[in-house]
């Protein structure tokens, strides 16, 4: 029964006259008492009505042919849905105690005797109608309360989730703030050294030894700045899965050994007990990225292990995997930090006197690069001051039968190629031109894209080093115009830019460049590319440009 429905009364009597009399009497008060009257001529008819409707009360004649009132009442109360419907038995004779007991056992709520007294009938019916109305109201209230409880439970869960997300965001924001503060610290240190060394070079009366040391400092700190920027960019690329791996079969043991040699050559391992057990183990991977992984793990061990500590580096094939394990006797990892040690912006206790420096993103980069290779990385530590172990597992492959790439033939020695620098940064262009001139290269310069195209077409240099972010027309348009000009088509075009994503490299090559180099450019790599572009005499004695080396 919904709130819009009236309570219903069922009158059951096989005598048509008695049925009409009762229903007519009840209908006189129906509007005032807000109920509806239905009728049935037999027990079977009454059961059908009970299947269709809910009733506030049933007036049931006792003496009916076939199924009498007691049997009908028993059948009605056997159904769970109608088991609680109150039944008033209507009978023409005064029931004795046995009949009353029998009626109550069948579920009778009351008796009416014919001839029915209207006032008594009305009073009894109103009681049950009011009771049905109240029960329906309580039922609706219970449903609303249940619905409200469900809503409140859902709201509470949502609020708890939002609070957890807010706390996580606050922790992440705090970690980012700490990271940015550390980034500023790490950037200012080399910048301060470079600035001081640069000022020293311009001071009068400075000894030659001091000038030499200043130059070494500038070079070393510039490389340090470059590593910081590279780490940030590599992490960004790895997180967005924009790093494309250049895979080939290689021996991890050889690669790790080479990394160790680099650390030894720079003096980083001085004062440490280094134990390297490197068994040959081959993987299908990107040599540059795998070197980053190994370097970061070794560098991390050196940073957090005091001088005199022990560092163990192991490479071993185990089943279908190649395992690289780096263990140290350093400061260890706190239990609460251990599950988050590979997360971005997470770092252990930061000490301002930590001599090795660093941004604390190396392990995040390691995890991303390992995952790109289809491997896994894990960390374990007994706790603070108990050392730590990092383990990399990569899919194992068969050893290469021969070198994957043949050694590049050395270009014919000839005259130095003429180089055109197209760069809008005056200081950067001047320094690059001075450096190349010191190596004997004739250098032309242009400060924007349009001037660069004009100089290239009129002077036809052998190589053009082109910045991408140029005023006027950008480096992409410079390359396209030079490739369309017959006089400049043979110039070897090298993009020298701060844009280093894989998408940037793709755009560079599509524009017509032969090579993509990222600033700050490694001097040895640049000189190698210029040597490859040296003009060599052809059969007729005319100089020609060597084919572009694969970039």
UniProtKB/TrEMBL annotation:
Keywords: Coiled coil, Kinase, Phosphoprotein, Transferase. The modification 4-aspartylphosphate is found at residues 61, 467. It catalyses: ATP + protein L-histidine = ADP + protein N-phospho-L-histidine. This is histidine kinase. Residues 8-129, 418-534 form the Response regulatory domain. It holds the Pfam family HisKA. It comes from Massilia cellulosiltytica. Gene3D superfamilies: 1.10.287.130, 3.40.50.2300, Histidine kinase-like ATPase, C-terminal domain. It comes from the Bacteria. Residues 182-398 form the Histidine kinase domain. It is a multi-pass membrane protein. PROSITE patterns: HIS_KIN, RESPONSE_REGULATORY. GO terms for molecular function: phosphorelay sensor kinase activity. One of its GO terms (cellular component) is plasma membrane. Residues 128-172 form a coiled coil. Its EC number is 2.7.13.3. It is an enzyme of class 2 (transferase). The keyword Electron transport does not apply. It is found in: Cell inner membrane.
């Amino acid at each position: 029964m919904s709130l819009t429905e009236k309570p219903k009364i069922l009158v059951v009597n096989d005598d048509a006259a008695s049925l009409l009399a009762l229903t007519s009497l009840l209908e006189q008060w129906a509007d005032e008492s807000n109920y509806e009257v239905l009728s049935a001529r037999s027990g079977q008819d009454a059961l059908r009505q009970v299947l269709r409707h809910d009733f506030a009360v049933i007036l049931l004649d006792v003496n009916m042919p076939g199924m009498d009132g007691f049997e009908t009442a028993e059948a009605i109360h056997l159904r769970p849905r109608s088991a609680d419907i109150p039944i008033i038995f209507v009978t023409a004779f005064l029931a004795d105690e046995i009949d009353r007991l029998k009626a109550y056992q069948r579920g009778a709520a009351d008796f009416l005797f014919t001839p029915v007294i209207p006032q008594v009938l009305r009073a009894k019916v109103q009681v049950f109608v009011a009771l049905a109305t109240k029960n329906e109201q309580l039922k609706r209230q219970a449903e609303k309360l249940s619905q409200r409880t469900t809503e409140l439970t859902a709201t509470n869960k949502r609020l708890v989730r939002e609070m957890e997300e807010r706390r996580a965001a606050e922790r992440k924001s705090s970690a980012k703030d700490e990271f940015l503060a550390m980034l500023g610290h790490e950037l200012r240190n080399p910048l301060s050294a470079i600035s001081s060394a640069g000022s020293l070079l311009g001071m009068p009366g400075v000894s030659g030894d001091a000038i030499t040391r200043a130059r070494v400092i500038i070079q070393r700190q510039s490389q340090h700045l470059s590593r910081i920027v590279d780490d940030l960019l590599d992490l960004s690329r790895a997180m967005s899965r924009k790093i494309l791996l250049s895979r080939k079969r290689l021996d991890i043991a050889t690669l790790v050994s080479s990394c160790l040699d680099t650390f030894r050559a720079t003096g980083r391992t001085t004062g440490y007990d280094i134990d390297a057990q490197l068994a040959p183990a081959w993987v299908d991977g990107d040599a540059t990225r795998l070197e980053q992984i190994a370097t970061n793990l070794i560098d991390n061990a050196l940073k957090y292990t005091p001088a005199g500590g022990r560092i163990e580096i192991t490479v071993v094939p185990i089943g279908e995997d190649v395992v690289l394990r780096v263990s140290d006797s350093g400061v260890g990892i706190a239990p609460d930090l251990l599950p988050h040690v590979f997360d971005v912006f997470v770092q252990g206790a930061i000490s301002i006197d930590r001599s090795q420096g660093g941004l604390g993103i190396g392990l995040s980069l390691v995890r991303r690069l390992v995952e790109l290779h289809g491997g896994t990385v894990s960390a374990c530590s007994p706790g603070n001051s108990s050392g730590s172990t990092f383990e990399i597992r990569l899919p194992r492959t068969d050893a290469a039968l021969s070198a994957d790439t043949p050694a590049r033939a050395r270009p014919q020695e000839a005259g130095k190629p003429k180089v055109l620098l197209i760069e809008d940064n005056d200081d950067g262009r001047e320094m690059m031109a001075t450096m190349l001139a010191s190596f004997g290269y004739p250098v032309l310069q242009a400060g924007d894209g349009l001037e660069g195209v004009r100089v290239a077409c009129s002077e036809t240099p052998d190589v053009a080093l082109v910045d991408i972010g140029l005023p006027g027309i950008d480096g992409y348009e410079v390359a396209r115009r030079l490739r369309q000009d017959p006089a400049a088509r043979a110039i070897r075009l090298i993009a020298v830019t701060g844009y280093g994503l894989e998408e940037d490299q793709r755009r560079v090559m599509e524009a017509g460049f032969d090579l993509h180099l990222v600033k700050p450019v490694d001097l040895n790599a640049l000189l190698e590319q210029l040597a490859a572009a040296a003009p060599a005499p052809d059969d007729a004695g005319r100089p020609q440009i060597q084919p572009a080396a694969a970039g």
